[in-house]
Description:
The structure is a homodimer.
Chain A: H1 3-8, E1 10-15, H2 20-36, E2 39-44, H3 47-54, H4 66-81, H5 96-108, H6 110-125, H7 134-143, H8 148-156, H9 158-174, E3 181-184, E4 187-190, H10 195-204
Parallel strand pairs in A: 1-2
Antiparallel strand pairs in A: 1-3, 3-4
Helix pairs in contact in A: 2-4, 2-6, 2-10, 5-6, 5-9, 7-8
Amino acid sequence: MFETERTSRTIAFYFDFMSPYAYLGSVGIERLAATHGYEVDWRPMLLGVSVIKVMGLKGVADTPLKRDYVRRDLVRCARYLDIPFARATDEPMTSLPAARVFVWLNEQDNSVARAFARAVFRAQWAEATDMSSPEAIASLAGSLGIDANETVAAMADERVKRRLREYVEASISLGVFGAPTFLIGSEMFWGVDRLPMIERWLETGGW
Amino acid sequence: MFETERTSRTIAFYFDFMSPYAYLGSVGIERLAATHGYEVDWRPMLLGVSVIKVMGLKGVADTPLKRDYVRRDLVRCARYLDIPFARATDEPMTSLPAARVFVWLNEQDNSVARAFARAVFRAQWAEATDMSSPEAIASLAGSLGIDANETVAAMADERVKRRLREYVEASISLGVFGAPTFLIGSEMFWGVDRLPMIERWLETGGW
Lengths: 207, 207
């Protein structure tokens, strides 16, 4: 195996656990990557920073018309992509505890971090379990064999919080503003609806 | 021909001439409709009303990060869909004159109105000609065999202006907020990237 070759076949995947479209995108991009021999590099971002602070917009839950459309569109997209979907509530999820644990795990073993991220997305958006609280996150981590006490400590660790801010700042510097966002080389794709275009890009090398 | 049958095979297409994605959507939906035996019912809306007044957001041109992404994404989408694309300027187009003429023509002959709308979209987004001014619109109408003096009068006609406002209010009442938006029965699809999903919907009758 050539390390440099493997590295060039990487799709960077920017996600926020609070986004159900990012959940659909996570399943979709892992399918595409598996089919085409790519690795997925999971990178947390925070919509609260990009959408509200940097772009000066509102969240979908606070936006008339779009709020109603999205509620219906999500269910339809999930069925279209054949991905399990069930939401607990219309209240926005708080993704900071989960994002911090992801960052902490990713420094130790990125395959464990990815397994954790998949489990959080599945619990939140396929099993209708609110994963906003540190308690829910610690319990989920425990079920994956990750020490629950260490998980609780990581969520409160200033170094971990700072590391997450660095991830978020890096995403903004690259121009990432929404979730899911996919980066193939320097080519950026925003939205789960870009998956067919990404597939064509992987097949053809771009246009 | 059975009028009722033809009517039920109609896709409502909501557009604003200022939206390049609506231009791409207009070409895409007419292709899909032709393949699947549907009619396209062109209905003007105004993003300045839905996005800014009703949703309380900003236009893309005023939104950091997204502005840069969209500039690149548009060219990529146009190539992906094999649709000619060339923009005159990054300044937003003013679509009121063209929308008013569309409304005026649509009351007389909707096939003439559709031909006019296609020509405006093509000039603005494939031939890089700014179609913001009444003069540009009157000249284009003249080239299609529509009386240029009557066109100028229609753009200033209070009754036509009121009729456009009624179209816009009707679109908001239905929950239409973006362009392009497609309505199949009561099923709403927003965005040019929903064309593959619409195609599946037409083939299967929905899910």
